[in-house]
Structures are given as structure tokens and as C-alpha cells.
Write a structure and sequence with these properties.
By secondary structure, this protein is mainly alpha-helical. The chain contains three helices and two strands; from the N terminus they run H-E-E-H-H. It folds into two domains: 37 residues; 89 residues, no CATH class. The relative contact order is 0.10. Its EC number is 3.1.6.6.
């Protein structure tokens, strides 16, 4: 961390930083588009689930903050997109879930042996967890 340069709001570096960040997002979006196009043109389009998630990314000056480590609720939320057979189009939920339980969820949906908690039932509203995400090791 000793090599990090301070960025002031009036610094030209600030604009370059934000443009670079947005360029990286644009590039990732284009690559995801390529994968989805290839999938839609393949024989696997009707039996393949697509799952995209990320960390919460960097703060770009919100509340004067330029990093990742904050205690704000927004800093603990991440994008999560899930599409495929059996997944309702346009569905969304405000239910709290933990990304650590995604792998066991996908394993179960693929009828494989799993270990962990199935977050799919949480997204369906079958389980009420009162907005609390709990992680444990068995």
C-alpha cells in the first residue's frame, strides 16, 4: 500500500482512474455478451444456466471515499444475475443471501452431491431468514 498515490478531487488522475474503471466494466460487459451470443447459437441454450456475480467494486468518490473497505450497507451488496431453465424471467428479491452458499446451490440444481445451504429456496421465499445472512462450517 506504500506505493499508492493520493488522489485529490481536482487531480487529473481522478478522471483517468474513473475512465479506466468504466473501461474495464465496458470490456467485461462486451465479453459477457460474446459468451451469451455463442451460447444462444449453440445446442446448449435450452439447458444451460448462466450466473454472474461480482464483488461490490470500488467507491468512486461517494461520500469522499475511494476504496472498498466501508461499513455502509451499500458496501456489502453485490450484483447477482441468474438466468436459465427454471429461473423466472425478471424476478428479483430483497432477501439477504450469502455468496458462500451459491456453489452448493448450483450443485443441487445440477443434481450433484452438495455441502452447504441452498439459497435458491431463499430466493423463492420458501424460507424466511428475516434479512440475516449466516455463514457456518460443518
Amino acid at each position: 500500500m506504500a506505493n499508492l498515490q493520493a488522489i485529490s478531487p481536482n487531480d487529473r488522475t481522478l478522471k483517468e482512474y474513473i475512465l479506466g474503471y468504466l473501461a474495464a466494466i465496458t470490456y467485461a460487459d462486451a465479453q459477457i455478451g460474446r459468451v451469451l451470443t455463442a451460447l444462444s447459437n449453440s445446442p446448449y441454450a435450452d439447458n444451460t444456466s448462466v450466473v454472474l456475480w461480482s464483488d461490490h467494486g470500488y467507491h468512486l468518490g461517494e461520500k469522499g471515499h475511494w476504496a472498498k473497505h466501508v461499513m455502509w450497507e451499500r458496501g456489502s451488496q453485490v450484483p447477482f444475475v441468474w438466468a436459465g431453465p427454471g429461473i423466472a424471467k425478471g424476478a428479483s428479491t430483497d432477501t439477504t443471501a450469502s455468496l458462500i452458499d451459491m456453489y452448493p446451490t448450483f450443485v443441487e440444481l445440477c443434481d450433484l452431491t452438495k455441502d452447504g445451504v441452498n439459497a435458491y429456496v431463499v430466493t423463492l421465499g420458501v424460507t424466511d431468514n428475516d434479512g440475516v445472512a449466516v455463514t457456518w462450517y460443518r
